[in-house]
Batch of 2 targets.
Target 1
Amino acid sequence: MKFAHFADVHLGYEQYNLPWRAEDFANAFKNAVKIAISEKVDFAIIAGDLFHRSVPNPKTLNDAIEALSALKENEIPVFAIEGNHDKSIREMSAYNLLENLGLLNVLGLRKERIEGDNVTSVRVENVYLVKGVYKDVEIIGDKHRTRWQLEKVLPLMKSDGKSILVLHQAVKEVVDVDLEMGWDLTIDQLPEADYYAFGHVHLHREKKIGERYLVYPGSTERYDSREASSFFFYGEKLEKREGERKGFCIVENFKPRFVEIETRDLYAISIDSEKKVEVEKKFLEVLHMIKSSAIAVVKIICSETIDSKKILEMALNRLKHAEINFKRREVETISKFVSENEFFNEFEMKLLEILREGGDVNIKSAIELVKEHFSIESEAKAVEAKTIEGKEELVQERREERKEVKKRVKTLLDFV
Ligand SMILES: [Mn+2]
């Protein structure tokens, strides 16, 4: 048994507001699919974030259809779960559309029973768990969930025989501290499985749990400067460090093998100098070491104010694209406007996305999302229960929490 494990494809991501970057993301996935086909895999798994947004534009949908059709033509079934970026609380998601086109199978808890060549359903409580089947192996998974939803959902994700567990969550023991990412679950919460096909962490990570592997193949393209192909630090002297490899995993008998895919180079360059002339000299030196097709993300720390426009021109003369961030030493202001991605967390970005589309339906969706995120319904029930027990203090506490929630949402709406 041999399968491809993809994750965090982020189709449609116009990184740095560049439409051609979305093409890079599409090409990375198409190349990955090509390799998977040539490797003659039995099936493929997409562990969430196939799309960058839950409402992909037509071009992005077309890219997804093209890539998935190639797998279909080669009789390779695809099993997928929705990630935090592309999950939808609407009745029908982009994944459901692809499913109706026969291009993938959506795994997870659903209202309706689904039966097919490669999927079956089991009843769990008042819903169905839709799982993939390949010979004697079950492919079990569910879309991205909040931490408290996971506590309820994880115990349902079990199998009697051989199985693969597909999730889009951060596992505490695998997440790097310097990623500044929260975690959703710990290893001891995981149900038994023979392979853990994960998504969400964009760097390639493999963790052995006994004899089993828990794997994040990482995103298929370079999602931000933490995933640069090379890192340059130029303080006293120039230091260079190799960056991240991008790709996916081919898994044979539950053992992963990382397969690299060629991507556009993205350089993370840090320059630290007292004088602005030194900055320019150092930057020019680095520029001559990198490919012209590349993107550079440049951080400059200098005691003098630099000519950012001149630095950007120098960069664009040689490179496809550059982002320049300047920070004056000991002064805590950044000359560049902070982007939304840096300012808001994932949940807030998702909420913004829905609200920007406008319309009553989306307002409802937004409210649902807020409820889901802050688990307001269950909190309300908890408040009810506590009232019966007569614990007024706790009720007050919950009210305060709710007020906090409301305040936060209001700030966000104000921004919109
Ligand atoms: Mn992702």
Note: The first helix runs from residue 19 to 38.
Target 2
Amino acid sequence: MKSIYLDNAATTKIDNEVLKSMKPYLEEFYGNPSSVHIKGQETKKALENARRVIAESINAKSEEIYFTSGGTESNNWALKGLFFKNYPKKNHIVTSKIEHDCVIKTCKWIEKNGGKVTYLDVDKEGFINLKDLEKSLTGKTFLVSLMHANNEIGTLQDIENMGKICKNKGVLFHTDAAQTYTKIPIDVKKMNINLMTINSHKIYGPKGVGVLYIKEGIKIEPLLHGGGHENGLRSGTENVPGIVGFGKAVEISKKINFQKISELRDSLITGILTNIPKTNLNGPVGEKRLPTNVNISFGGAEGEALGAYLENKGVYVSTGSACMSNTNSESHVLKAIGLSGKEQDSSIRFTLGKETKKKEISYVLKVLPGIVEKLRMGEVINN
Ligand SMILES: Cc1ncc(COP(=O)(O)O)c(C=O)c1O
């Protein structure tokens, strides 16, 4: 039985080198990094090394890197932490209709607690209009939170110019870079990013570790109170093995050939669009698309069934975002780019990774047309 994993946006398989780097911190180096004795200092050193590696990778200072439990916590913290700091003087956040659920739901919570949120529209490829962004900012706006790349359709936003607009208006800019970190170069200074969310399990590191980058001088309330870890802003004994693994994953990410991955991505897109009728690509083409993302609507074939048939052939894909697929609700992203309910239901996301092989893409292209045809015939019979 084949196993072709094309769900790397949901999570990636931990790299062997990462696993190896973590092992000593699960076995012999178990000290609490807050302890002053040697056992604590050994782990403290490893923690600070990972912090430095991550800081350097985005042109930040080590003191600007705060370890969290992942992307969800980092996004919650950025939004709620700044809301608590600014409310009631300023109460307005600008975000978009295609953000990850952990941003959208945090915004909904903020609205229930006295905040105001503008959800910017996107065009049919998922791009935010910069003029709309500029117009949405008011004297009450304390934060703009817009993702770098969308996790469902791979649209890469022009965050550098978004950062510039925010800077000119004196508004803080946060970006969720969970899908782009190490894939697309990020320079927080050049891009005027004030806060940024990244995580480890999307880049062949362990799950349950993330970072919130917070530019020096920004005042934010902690989400978790306690022993005063992470400069008093994020309490809780640090996940040392996870953080060490995160650092290693960043180090070895330099070896990944994203040009090759984007070529495989394009061969999958072209193969599907030319060989299977009534198919549409969701999201943009070329450089403005995440190198790893393919999202296609297979008009008339049901996406969930398509996913199940592919799984039967050993191919693992997803319908929309993994975090949503167990809630069975529609995709707010596909809806925002104008897809009808039926088109949304017929969509599949394939996300490639560093281990994806040309022959795996060829195999998918070989089995897909038959599956789609079968499902479409089924639909005709059922109707
Ligand atoms: C864009 C984006 N933001 C945030 C998250 C949440 O990250 P985590 O799974 O680390 O909580 C994800 C992961 O699904 C994501 O794709």
Note: Residues 271 and 366 are 9 Å apart (CA to CA).
